[in-house]
Amino acid sequence: METSDIYILCIEDEQEVLDAVVRDLEKLEEQFPIETAISAEEARDVINKLMNEGKKIGLILCDHILPGENGVDLLIELHQNEKLHASKKVLLTGQAGLEDTVKALNKARLHHYIAKPWTKEDLNQVVIDLLTDYVIDQEEDILPFMRTLDANKLSESIRRRSVSDE
Asked: Are 56 and 6 a contacting pair, CB within 8 Å?
């Protein structure tokens, strides 16, 4: 399986939680490289580096409580970057209250909220669903993603594309 230029970015300040997220998403990393950041500032640096290399960020998983600033504000800021509009955004937290969560949904176009603690199965299902949507929306050739992502959804998209091309 070939590594794509679509990255997953995990932003979490607690190293053991970050390690757990990366470990849970391990099977996806063969195709979707995972980058990590422990602060909003480091996340910006990683994003700039990837974008300067012509890479794409398909999914941003972000904790709410980060050193210096919160994840909701970071996700809102990232959503305002036109190059990240298509990126799927997930708030992964045990700390965000209803007000912050609603703010993230409305202003950062949050795609999903995952409460801590999560299960590996739930996390993988959310990430696979969102990356499948990202690939369908953003990639010309979606065939290489059949083994990793939702094959049924990708097949349906390929069928719809071939019908609309006729």
From this structure: yes
